[in-house]
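Reopening this one. Same input as before:
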Amino acid sequence: MSQEENYILVLGSKPESKLPDVKVNKIYSANGAAERALEYKKKYPNIKHTALIGSKEFTENKNVKSRVINSCPDKLYCRSGRIVIPNELYNCELEFLSGKEQFNFQSKFYKFRGLDILMGEILFYETDLYKIIKHTYSCMTYRGFWGVATGFYSFLLALHENPEAKILVSGIGLVEGGHFYTSKDSYGYVSERSKKLINEGKLSLYNKYRNTSRCRVERYLISRLKKNYKKRIISLDDEMVKYGKVMKWEGQVF
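Same output, byte for byte:
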């Protein structure tokens, strides 16, 4: 197998991220980053594309849903329950995971397995005692222990499904911020349930970006990634190289 055939591309939505100028064997994208798969395939066509989504994000966020549909993925992978599939995606291969299944899947990658996910959520999602207790209670009662966001989850899936490949990651920086398809200071998608709680005065959005807390969890969890997985990750983003301590892509980009 040639060097080119050993590469898998994983795409996130971090603004101003570049694409590797090399032919890969497969593409995985997270939520709205499916649009970036289209850009890559203009130069390197006919590559299988798996689009990963969160069920609520896809159902309620038109910004994400339209980009996933327009990318015409070969497979749609939903990590948070079943959804109604639009007609445009009926020819896709489909896979749905429950909250428990996605927790169990993540666990195999970390040194202390599920315990690392629990520690990440409890110790890093919030920063003061009251919020830590409140978040832990919500995880135990209805939210579940989510672990990583869909971008991080995408390269875990790529690692699992392609055990002999190097995983090129673009657009996942492990830092807070917006997406390439939103304004610079956009808080981002807020679920209908959260909107209802905000209107009732039961919830406040106290971070500038919605992914601030999740990024803290992810920086912990990538530090807990087993070495045999981490050594196969190559990032195009300086922030992920810094916080994830993974290899930096030194090839051409576009």
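So the earlier flakiness isn't reproducible anymore. For the record, Residues 129-143 form the longest helix (15 residues).
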